[in-house]
Amino acid sequence: MTGWNHQAACRSASSKSKVLCIEDDPIVQLMLEDIVTGAGAEYIIVGTAREAEDQIAEGQFDLVLLDRRLPDSDGLLLLQSIKSRNDCPVWILSAMDETRDKLLGIGLGAAEYVTKPFNPIELSSRIRQLLGTISDVNNPADSNAFEVEGMTFDPRSRRLDMDGHLVILAPAEARLLHVLLLNEGEVQTRDQLSQFACGREWSPGDRTVDVLINRLRGRMRSFPVEIVTVHRTGYLLVLGAKANP
Fold this sequence. Notes:
The chain has two domains: 18-137, 3-Layer(aba) Sandwich (Rossmann fold); 143-239, Orthogonal Bundle (Arc Repressor Mutant, subunit A).
């Protein structure tokens, strides 16, 4: 099997993590500004579902904080739209604290359900912990670009290139490919991949990792890489040639 060669390259410091806050209450908006900046991240705050849709369409985020009650939509409807276009964790912030509300939010794809009023210091700490996990994967000690058989992958810029065929991966896709490359030939469980790519534990019924794998396979059809399904366990990556079916 052909292994990766690591290319030394000069890079600027990685950019800060980016958080989208969807909240219409001006007082809570100010709290979230302090909380997110206190966690060392950049933020964008919007007050409506329409504005949030515009932001999601324009860029990728590392975390979305989503109010359940918005003036133009139920936050759960917006949650489904966000998850269809962005693979980042979504945390619902809501005063609706019934167990059925929490189960519904988690069932629709929220990584966390935080009830209001929340402790700002605790929330900032949890955000810092999540973004730190993502940052560790985006910027490991060995974060040089990889090269094999004319194909290169740069984890920081998320650029995958071979013979002029350039693909820019989404953040979660790039994190997933990176961890598979770093563990070439070794089976990675869905829980391991979910922790690295999405910043959350995997649970039965969570299809996020499988969706990301399918996207990567589609993007990498012309590349000398195969992502192999290991039944009931997870996935492994084979380099240099397509694996046998």
